[in-house]
Write a sequence for this structure.
């Protein structure tokens, strides 16, 4: 088991950014420099409004969000949806040569 889980990461079975069960000394994920922003679309304003992640979250959670950890991304978007009037929350993650967008609809449509 201690060998199978890390091998699953390197064989591409696990998500490439999720190195929780990898031999990190061989992983290049920590070398990636990524930026992440979370915006919310509410029923009042026409333009998406960015959330102040550095004030909302501890530094470690912001780093995990920048790495694209799926559970952290889902948790942050769910928390953003708890604000009154928010219709959707969007994570935009930009790395060198790669971009990821995750959208969560907060309310069911009409």
């Amino acid at each position: 088991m201690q060998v199978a889980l890390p091998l699953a990461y390197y064989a591409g079975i696990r998500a490439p950014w999720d190195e929780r069960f990898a031999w990190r000394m061989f992983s290049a994920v920590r070398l990636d420099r990524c930026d992440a922003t979370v915006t919310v679309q509410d029923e009042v304003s026409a333009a998406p409004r960015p959330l102040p992640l550095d004030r909302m979250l501890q530094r470690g959670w912001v780093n995990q969000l920048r790495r694209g950890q799926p559970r952290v991304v889902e948790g942050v978007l769910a928390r953003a949806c708890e604000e009154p009037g928010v219709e959707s929350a969007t994570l935009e993650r930009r790395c060198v040569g790669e971009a990821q967008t995750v959208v969560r609809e907060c309310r069911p449509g009409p």
Summary: The beta strands are 35-42, 49-50, 86-95, 98-105. Residues 41 and 47 are 7 Å apart (CA to CA). The mean pLDDT is 78.
